[in-house]
Amino acid sequence: MSYKSRVQLLNPHNSTKKCSRCGMVNAPKGALYKCKKCGLKIGSLTPA
Q: Is 4 among the domain residues?
């Protein structure tokens, strides 16, 4: 696949627990993900 696109393979390990801003691994609780390190708040089902 080389037509106007780039593919980046990611390791899915901890992908639902990792903060998209700072990389800290947190355990999400409920519908709101809140990072303990940087304070990012985001819906847990929202793609980061």
A: no
